[in-house]
Write the structure tokens for this entry.
Amino acid sequence: MNIYKLISRLSNQFSSIQLIVLYYFIVVIAASILLALPIFRNPGMELSFIDLIFTAVSTVSVTGLTTINLGETYNLAGVILMQFLFMLGSLGVMMVSTSFMLIRRKKVSLKQRQLIMTDMNQPRLSGTVRLIRNTVLIILGFEFIGGLVLSIYFFFFSNWPLKEVLFQGFFTSFSAVANVGVDLTGQVLIPFHDDYFVQFIIMLLIIVGGIGFPVLLEVKDFLQYHKLKKTLPFRFSLFTKITVFSFFILLFGGALCIWLLEYNQFFKDMSFTESAFYSFFYSVTTRNAGLMTTSLSNFSEGSLLLFSILMFIGASPSSVGGGIRTTTLAIVMVYLISFIRGHDQVSLFKRRIERDDVQKSITVFILSMVLCLFSIMVLSVSESHDLITLIVEVTSAFGTTGLSLGITPTLTVVGKLIIIVLMFIGRIGMLYMLMLLIPKHKDDKNYHYPTEKIIIG
């Protein structure tokens, strides 16, 4: 039986969501097998089975948490392999596979379009192939431009040889856009803690990767629309409005809270410019990137708790990031405000939000909280670390961020398994994991139970 017949048979037996999760599971297995091959490792470097699975899930989920030193364990071929796995995880299985089909000029079937729609979390089937084509071009374009800018800057303002300049420039750009947070040197961006140009470029690249692919396409359409000088006004979708609004509220609000929490502590002897850059950088990087300009241990427990909240929220839907997503939080908050005001409808930007979307958002928010709290309780028993350290580790894994206080290599087997599950769910999404339980063909009940009021509060 060839692979196409196998895929066709699976398509008839499973729903689109079940197939997408199955594809990611297969990719994790394939990544584990590849990363276990000696040709990708430095001589004498061995990995345990649990560390191998951990590394595979971390790369496919684009988290960056690691139980080993990647730079010492893997050679150049291994680094290139991980970059491909990071690309596969950040863009999505269906986006990468469809891109290869488009390059080979293969026709995209209706079932494949449905899988693309599911993997990209799109509400409509139309325009999915265009979304993939333009998204890949935009993401690769930003990675190339960012890598070129950083390489030129490193060439003039560092003592690195040309080979190192190009590698660091393009790898840093790729890591920022893909929100990887992976560390090959052990220093991350700490050597650039006072280099505001590098930090500014990296923050822009992180935002590009985390704000959502549909938003990038609408901005592109908006710019092209004005070049054509059309008379009718351009209308952004409600998704883009909510995404951009919530994304930047969290960015600026997070930066302000970090600055206030560290004003008399870590920022006490710093200039305003230095403290402001630290605040903005960590407000951006905690949303999914995981890159650091200083050790997390320098921050107070209040800031670490705030980082955990930002990592739990994560990036925007249909982006490279994980977490509950910004729109989920926005809809939950708008629902609470509407309920307090006694409004029957949940609306934003003069548009009513569907009841189904409100229910999904509340469900994702509550169950994600339960999952993270349960994971923290399990780790508090299996690990011998402070509670705030475990909270950071759990939310970093669920948000596929990659920030840590350095406890990842010391986790027990139980702790590593918990983090593996959190990283996988964080990449797939809590909603999709729940919908795995829904069969492809649902039986509609032709009856309703009588309602009865109960006492609340």
Notes: Residues 218 and 237 are 8 Å apart (CA to CA). Residues 128-157 form the longest helix (30 residues).
